[in-house]
Amino acid sequence: MGFFDRLKSGLSRSREAINEIFYMGGEVDEDFWEDLEDTLVMGDMGGELAMRVTDDLREQAARENLNRADQLRDALAKRLAQEFRTADRDPFEDVPSCVLFVGINGAGKTTTVGKLAGRARGEGKSCLIGGADTFRAAAIEQLEVWGTRAGVDVITRERGADPASVCYDVVEEAEKRGTQLVLIDTAGRLHTSSDLMRELAKVVNVTRKRCTSMPVTVVLVIDATTGQNGLAQAKEFNDALDLDGLIVTKLDGTAKGGIALAISDQLGLPIYRIGVGESIDDLETFDALDFCRALVGEGK
Ligand SMILES: Nc1nc2c(ncn2[C@@H]2O[C@H](COP(=O)(O)OP(=O)(O)O)[C@@H](O)[C@H]2O)c(=O)[nH]1
Ligand SMILES: [Mg+2]
């Protein structure tokens, strides 16, 4: 399967509802516009964004005399794509580079680090993984399994060690080896969310300060199936850590792919990659227009 087909099959659950309105009747009438706006809201784009996009498309339809639903499909994809922030720099391509992954437990941080490490090795880049989730022994083991699978060394410390010290170690080792890409996995759960944010802020600050030889990028990994809840989460992380960008995971298992758009739009952050499955190859580079076309469908 080619890239676009994989993305499309990943987003098929998000696309079903949109497909329905484009196939129904085919007339662009008052009901069509209402259904479109509702469908965008249900796909977790958020009310304000759904309204803005629907209004713009409605104006365009009037201006260009588009009165069949299928004529509007690509216009919708293009209009949605405009809402995404674009990245100035790809932290996984533009090396040397050090990337910290943050996010709540279960978001897909460790899996994403593993996928990216595998990809980097496949491209012939040198890579090193830092395991700064030292709260659970199982977290360290899981990361080591991914490291082995990807053929990348994992630097960590014993359970309970200071996560910031792991960052220090991994940056030092990377500088010694001349490593191109450093990927640091962090913990997603502490007793309270304010403990987590304080701990992560320390990890981020130590890494930013220690790592002078390459840019440090802080990426929030977010599970698309968390819907609007994910937006509140993303805001909390952004306020505490001043994020650089996002990776949205589990777009294969949700009808709420629009959340990717809502978060990128509201936080003004680019999406670097998207996760569309559990295996090592299920990570895609993000292209806003491809994504929106896969979300909206290409028509017949
Ligand atoms: N379907 C699907 N599952 C994913 C994806 N990314 C991660 N997962 C699964 O989500 C679960 C939690 O992932 P993990 O990397 O341990 O999350 P962490 O707690 O943030 O490190 C695991 O079962 C992963 O296999 C994805 O893109 N799609
Ligand atoms: Mg983890």
From TrEMBL:
Pfam family, one: SRP54_N
Predominant location category: membrane
Entry annotated with the keyword Cytoplasm: yes
Gene Ontology biological-process annotations: SRP-dependent cotranslational protein targeting to membrane
GO cellular component: cytoplasm; plasma membrane
Boundaries of every AAA+ ATPase domain copy: 95-253
InterPro entries found in the cross-reference section: AAA+_ATPase (IPR003593), P-loop_NTPase (IPR027417), Signal_recog_particl_SRP54_hlx (IPR013822), SR_rcpt_FtsY (IPR004390), SRP/SRP_N (IPR036225), SRP54_GTPase_dom (IPR000897), SRP54_N_sf (IPR042101)
Catalytic activity field: GTP + H2O = GDP + phosphate + H(+)
SMART domains xref list: AAA, SRP54, SRP54_N
Binding-site positions, GTP: 103-110, 185-189, 249-252
Domain of life where this protein originates: Bacteria
Topology in membrane: Peripheral membrane protein
Molecular function GO labels: GTP binding; GTPase activity; signal recognition particle binding
Keywords: Cell membrane, Cytoplasm, GTP-binding, Hydrolase, Membrane, Nucleotide-binding, Receptor
Gene3D superfamilies (alphabetical): P-loop containing nucleotide triphosphate hydrolases (3.40.50.300), Signal recognition particle SRP54, nucleotide-binding domain (1.20.120.140)
Domain called SRP54-type proteins GTP-binding: residue spans: 96-297
Record flagged with keyword Cytoplasm: yes
Role, per record: Involved in targeting and insertion of nascent membrane proteins into the cytoplasmic membrane. Acts as a receptor for the complex formed by the signal recognition particle (SRP) and the ribosome-nascent chain (RNC).
The protein, known as: Signal recognition particle receptor FtsY
Source organism: Tractidigestivibacter scatoligenes
High-level lineage: Bacteria, Bacillati, Actinomycetota, Coriobacteriia, Coriobacteriales
